[in-house]
Structure formats: C-alpha cells, structure tokens
C-alpha cells in the first residue's frame, strides 16, 4: 500500500478560499471551548467536577437536537443513520472529560494542561501509523512550534513530583482520548453525517457515560444551589459544548484532523486571555511568548491552496 498523504494533514480539501468558513468555525470554536476552564472554576465551589462535566453535555442536548433538525431540514442529502465512528466519538469524548477531571484531581492544573496539549501529537501518530496517512513536513514543523509554545505557556508552572505521577498519567490518557475524538469525528463527517448530528449523537453517548461516572465517582454536590452557578453550568453547556464542540465538528467537515487538533493550543491561549480578563490572572512575558509561538505554529501548518487527491 502506498503511503499517500492525508488530505488535510498535508493539504486542504479544496481551494484555500473555500476553507475560510471552516477556519472561522475552528477559531470561534476554540474561543468557546477556551471559556470552559473559567466556567468550571466559577461553578466548582458548588458542583463537583464529574457533575459539572455531565451537566456540560446534558444541558446542551436540547440545543443540539434543535440544531440537528434545522440542519437536516436545510440539507436533505445528509445521512441520518448511526455510524460506528460517531458512537466511538462519544466514547472518546467521555474518556477525554473523565480523565481530564481525574488529572486535575491527581496533579496540578499546569501539569494536566501540559500533558493534555500533546493530543495533536497522537492525532498525527495515529493517522500515520494506524491509518497510513503521512503528514507533510510543514504540519510537523507547525506542530513542533505549537508544542514549544504550549510548553512555554504553562511550562513555568509544571512540576515534577513522584506523588503526582498518577495524575500526570491521566493527563496523557486525556490527550489520547482527545486525539481519538478528532479522528472519529473526522471519519463521521467524511461518511456524510452533518456536524449537528455528529455532535448530538456523540453527546448523547457521552452524557450516558458521564451519568454513570457521577453515580460512581462523584463525592461532591451534583446540583447547584445558587442561580449564578446554574447560569455558569448553562453557559458551559451552550457556549463551550454546543458552541465549541459543534463548531469543531463543522470545521472537521472541511479541515483535516491533524490541523484541526491544533485547536487545543488555541483553546489554551483563549483560556489564558479569558482568565486575565475575567479573573484578573495577569499574563507574564513567557505566557505572551507562548501564545505567539502557538499562533505562528498554526500559521505554518495551515492548509494551502491545492486540489483534492483521489
């Protein structure tokens, strides 16, 4: 079998001008997902971590269902069947959220964030080794620059502590599941499913898994007791999940998983900026440098004008 490049890991799926809406969806989705750490911190005094992960997905389901009905009414050619890839996407996102919260509980937030940002590495490795999709040189260069930027963004807070190795391990597992999520959503979109159906069905699977996790693992309150915390959970569901994950699924219909996975770095930049604006957490020179390197790496890896390969 020839080792042909993956369209999108190395090239765009069409003329670069056609990718503008997908790139916009990717960037806005990253900003929406970047709000999630701020909202989780806001509701954490009242709601446990696993419960907040569950409400993030469950409360978004009505909006996602309405979007799915609207999208499929406007585009009757979209498939309405279930595929293994969309079900696997839901399981992968469940693993991502579960191990992310376990990582936060078992190690520092900086360590958890640092290891979670290695997800794009696993996307490229899985696609290359498992799916025989060779990445382009500029994709690898852009990824390397983003990794350096991500390490710079959080690196000064990363600590090596043998007592936190389990949490660090969970951070790596988070990255593995997030990589699988990108690849399975990309596959589902390639099979003709709309972005709304992919996000809705995957979220239904995730909500069921997280409901079981709340029953078994959650030791803190499940329901908020103030209107502010309830509003925070609703914002987490509608903005970070329905908006962020939904726009990511839109982007993966046109952009490759390898490039789109760099959204995790954009998410980290957005989270740092929002924490500065909303929580007063000042950005130092290293954080600014790290954010600049991430933007430079994404610019290097972005899809170029090219024709689709068969």
Write structural notes for this entry.
By secondary structure, the chain is mostly helical. The protein has a domain at 22-135 and 158-256. Helix content is 71%, strand content 0%. Residues 1-17 and 306-310 have low confidence and may be disordered.
Order of helices and strands: HHHHHHHHHHHHHH
The multimeric state of the shown protein is single chain
Unreliable segments (pLDDT under 50, ≥5 consecutive)?
Answer: 1-17, 306-310
Measured by DSSP, the beta-strand proportion falls in: under 5%
**Which whole number gives the mean pLDDT?**
82
Helix content: over 70%
Distance between the termini: 15 Å
Give the beta-strand count.
0
The secondary-structure class comes to mainly alpha
Major beta sheet, specifics?
A: none
What is the radius of gyration computed over CA atoms, rounded to a whole number of angstroms? 19 Å
What is the number of helical segments per DSSP (H or I, 4+ residues)? 14
Give the CA-based shape: globular
Organism: Methylobacterium frigidaeris
Keywords: Membrane, Transmembrane, Transmembrane helix
Protein name: EamA domain-containing protein
Provide key terms for this protein.
single chain, 310 residues, mainly alpha, 14 helices, globular, disordered C terminus, EmrE-like, EamA_dom
What is the structure about, briefly put?
The chain is mainly α and 310 residues long. Helices cover 71% and strands 0% of the residues.
Write the layout of secondary structure elements.
Blueprint lengths: L19 H15 L1 H8 L5 H10 L2 H14 L9 H23 L2 H8 L2 H12 L6 H18 L10 H26 L4 H23 L9 H26 L4 H4 L2 H17 L5 H17 L9
């Amino acid at each position: 079998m020839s080792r042909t490049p993956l369209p999108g890991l190395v090239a765009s799926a069409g003329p670069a001008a056609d990718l503008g809406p997908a790139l916009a969806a990717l960037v806005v989705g990253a900003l929406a997902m970047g709000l999630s750490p701020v909202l989780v911190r806001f509701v954490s005094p009242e709601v446990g971590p696993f419960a907040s992960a569950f409400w993030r997905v469950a409360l978004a389901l009505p909006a996602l269902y309405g979007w799915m009905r609207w999208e499929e009414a406007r585009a009757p050619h979209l498939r309405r069947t279930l595929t293994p890839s969309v079900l696997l996407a839901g399981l992968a996102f469940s693993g991502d959220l579960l191990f992310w919260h376990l990582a936060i509980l078992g190690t520092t937030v900086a360590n958890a964030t640092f290891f979670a940002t290695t997800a794009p590495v696993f996307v490229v490795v899985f696609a290359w080794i498992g799916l025989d999709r060779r990445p382009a040189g500029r994709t690898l260069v852009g990824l390397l620059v983003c990794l350096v930027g991500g390490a710079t963004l959080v690196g000064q807070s990363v600590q090596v502590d043998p007592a936190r190795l389990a949490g660090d391990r969970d951070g790596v597992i988070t990255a593995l599941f997030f990589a699988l999520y990108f690849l399975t959503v990309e596959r589902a979109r390639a099979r003709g499913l709309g972005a709304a159906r992919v996000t809705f069905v995957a979220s239904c699977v995730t909500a069921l898994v997280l409901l079981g996790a709340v029953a078994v693992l959650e030791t803190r309150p499940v329901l908020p007791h103030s209107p502010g915390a309830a509003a925070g959970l609703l914002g987490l569901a509608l903005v970070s999940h329905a908006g962020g994950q939904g726009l990511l699924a839109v982007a993966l219909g046109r952009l490759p998983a390898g490039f789109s996975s760099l959204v995790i770095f954009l998410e980290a930049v957005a989270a740092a900026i929002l924490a500065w604006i909303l929580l007063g957490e000042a950005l130092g020179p290293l954080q600014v440098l790290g954010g600049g390197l991430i933007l430079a790496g994404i610019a290097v890896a972005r899809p170029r004008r090219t024709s689709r390969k068969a």
